[in-house]
Write a structure and sequence with these properties.
Distance between the termini: 28 Å
Strand content: 25-35%
Number of strands: 23
Radius of gyration: 22 Å
Length: 485
């Protein structure tokens, strides 16, 4: 089972606990409540800090894609956590931009729960932060979660956070005193039952909303705007917004493309603007669904390990499905929050479309490397280690600085919070429609903000530099869905 994780992780080939059984699923850990904090293993010889650190070191020594960059002088006794030790081992690769905290330790149970159904806990909103302006805004709100039920949605601004009216603190004051970490602290843990009072504004009108975090399954494809056909100048455009690559996305993806195929749609907008990644199997399914005009002899993508593990290298070819379409043109909407599996799909399809494929919005994150996952189920420990790179049919996969410079066409566009996702008048979607119609545009700059989103000044849209808010210690769901709270 292959996997590509999110913005703070990357693509992964899951192996069994000690590296054997390539391609097999890891042994699941004990059942855990979705969204609960990572279980702390009981102190024992097996799960002592020293023993867990040693396991992580052994994984990296055997599998790390850049073995020559591992810091051999790092002393595990100097670190109070496994992650701190991993960060020290990978510091050189991080300094070179090759491993931006993509190698980490996580909970087997929590990650399996999210990858299977989208299970997590929280308010169910995606937050972006304007640090210079000291503002926090809602980029997205998820169906079936408490936030949307309370009427909180895209474009709202959080003005203050507290547990009661008597202790509401303004977001501006929190950011000034504590930075973005203060917002994470103020919102509380990602556990069901946690209640916060939020002062929320929309259109200059503020209100106070009490919201209690709850367990929910995050829909990978929105029931409101995830898949639709946009009419544009007499042409039918298939619009797909994919939030994350999890197995629960497979059925709605097939359903969406079945409707596109039935309508005879040949031009498409695929909206990855906040998509931090997910399962490789779902990325391959999306490639197949967009590959009705491809054959099983044509390469979709390949993975390449370090020299000592080159026997693990493999290629994946297109496998058109009953629901597959044959695009004439594709516009991918991206931002620097678009990473991993999102970038793999774009990079894999680009050689087959040349100037009939474009990136709309801003440059992507830049994450061509992938991971394997090795487990110690007794400790609920899963070490995700950067172990391979992803390449397309041209052998191209060195896009650490994002995809914009690798594509024949790119078009700048803002992420317009004043309009809903799926709205043809929203700036990035409008830019995609312009590309599909053959209109000219300004190319995207080549810089990557490593997870940020850059607003642009265009006709009354919300304009500022902002980035998705990511906690210092994200849950598995927050790794895959950047900005999730």
């Amino acid at each position: 089972m292959r996997h590509i994780t999110g913005l703070l992780a990357s693509c992964a080939l899951l192996l069994s606990a000690c590296g054997g059984g390539g391609g097999s699923s890891p042994t699941p850990g004990p059942t855990a409540v979705a969204g609960a904090p990572t279980p702390t293993p009981a102190p024992s010889p097996t799960c002592s800090l020293e023993n867990r650190q040693a396991f992580a070191r052994d994984v990296l020594n055997e599998w790390y894609l850049f073995p020559e960059l591992l810091v051999t002088s790092a002393n595990p006794a100097s670190f109070t956590t496994v992650q701190g030790y991993i960060d020290a081992l990978t510091a050189t690769a991080r300094a070179q931009g090759k491993d931006r905290f993509f190698t980490f330790i996580t909970s087997i149970a929590e990650e399996n729960a999210f990858n299977t159904t989208g299970a997590t806990a929280g308010i169910g909103i995606r937050l972006s932060i304007d640090t210079p302006g000291r503002r926090v805004l809602i980029s997205e709100s998820f169906e079936g979660a408490p936030g949307l039920t309370a009427g909180i949605d895209r474009g709202d601004e959080i003005l203050a956070i507290g547990t009661a009216g008597s202790n509401l603190r303004s977001v501006s004051d929190i950011l000034a005193a504590e930075g973005s970490g203060g917002i994470t602290t103020a919102l509380g843990p990602s556990t069901a039952g946690t209640t916060r009072l939020l002062r929320v504004a929309r259109g200059g009108v503020s209100r106070e909303v009490s919201v209690t975090k709850a367990d929910f399954d995050l829909p990978a494809v929105s029931s409101r705007y995830g898949a639709r056909i946009i009419q544009d100048g007499g042409r039918q455009i298939g619009y797909l917004n994919l939030r994350t690559f999890i197995s629960a996305a497979d059925t709605p993806l097939r359903d969406a493309f079945r409707s596109f195929r039935a309508a005879g749609v040949t031009e498409f907008i695929v909206d990855f603007r906040y998509n931090g990644g997910g399962l490789i199997s779902t990325a391959e399914l999306l490639g197949d669904l967009l590959g009705g005009n491809r054959t099983s002899a044509e390469l979709f993508s390949g993975v390449r390990f370090r020299a000592s593990k080159s026997s693990r290298n493999e290629n994946t070819f297109f496998n058109p499905r009953a629901e597959s379409v044959s695009p004439a043109k594709i516009a991918f909407i991206g931002t620097s929050a678009s990473a991993s599996a999102s970038e793999l799909v774009i990079n894999s399809l680009a050689p087959y479309y040349n100037r009939n494929l474009a990136l709309i919005g801003s440059n992507t994150f830049g994450k061509p490397v992938g991971q394997i996952a090795l487990d110690r189920s007794a400790c609920d420990d899963r070490v995700r280690v950067v172990a391979f790179t992803s390449v397309n049919v041209r052998g191209a996969g060195d896009y650490f600085n994002g995809l914009a410079s690798t594509l024949d066409v790119s078009c700048q566009a803002a992420d317009d919070l004043t309009r809903p996702l799926g709205d043809p008048q929203e700036a990035s979607i409008r830019g995609a429609l312009d590309f599909l119609a053959g209109r000219s545009c300004t190319a995207i700059g080549q810089s990557s903000a490593a997870g940020g989103l850059t607003g642009q000044s265009q006709g009354g849209q919300i304009t500022f530099e902002r980035e998705l808010l990511i906690p210092a210690a994200p849950t598995p769901a927050q790794r895959e869905v950047p900005g999730l709270f």
